[in-house]
Amino acid sequence: MAPARGILAIGSQAADFMRVLLVEDDRMIGQAVQTALRQDGYAVDWVRDAESADTALTTAGFDLVLLDLGLPGRDGVDLLRTLRTRHDATPVLIVTARDDVQDRVGGLDAGADDYLVKPFDLDELGARMRALLRRSAGRGEAVFEHRGVRIDPATREVTRDGEPVTLSPREFAVLEALMLRPGAVLSRAQLEDRLYGWGESVESNAVEVYIHGLRRKLGHDFVQNVRGVGYFVPKADSQGPG
Ligand code: CA
After folding, report:
1. What is the C-alpha R_g of the chain?
2. Contacts of 18 (CB under 8 A, 6+ apart)
3. CA of 67 to the centre of ligand 1 (A)
4. pTM of full prediction above 0.70
5. Could you read off the pLDDT of 91-138 as tens digits, one per residue?
């Protein structure tokens, strides 16, 4: 672990509301990494063992997992295998003190995307995270379009009927979540999950404010709600949730 150096040079563009799961049982390392990443705008959830990580990954979506291998109880490689077995493709960066070639090969073969050996430099961690996030963005849907609204997750450009629309980063995150699956209803809690890490304070009407902004900019009908359930963008050929 490099001495604490304050700010990680991750680049706020890449870090905008990316959600990271940090799996680390070492208190000092965990705290240093969490603090540095939060300063760079990542939403960071920190768990200390594989079981909690497993639960977190089945209940929320993460853009990246930082995974220690030596954990109390179940170890990190076991968690990684479980994850890949259920076709969870979340990028995983192993961060561990195990530096044998065999450990590295084993971790990568179990489905890790990259491997960083402790002690590590926070700058290198940041650079590797950026590389993984770039790669995973390139792997996903490049650009998607629905009812005249087109969004590009890589550049964060949005157009409506060909005209540029300016969205705040959180409005963009809400829109992206809804447009990934037209017709699917997302609850307020699911949308909040996408925007905030655990323990971050959330204004009770935050999601409503973003939805209001999206409707103002994209047309009132573009985002609809099912009272008491959540929000959805209608499929192209219907007005109801699908
Ligand atoms: Ca450990």
Report:
1. 19
2. 41, 42, 43, 63, 64, 133
3. 9
4. no
5. 999 999 888 888 888 899 999 999 999 999 998 998 899 888 877 765
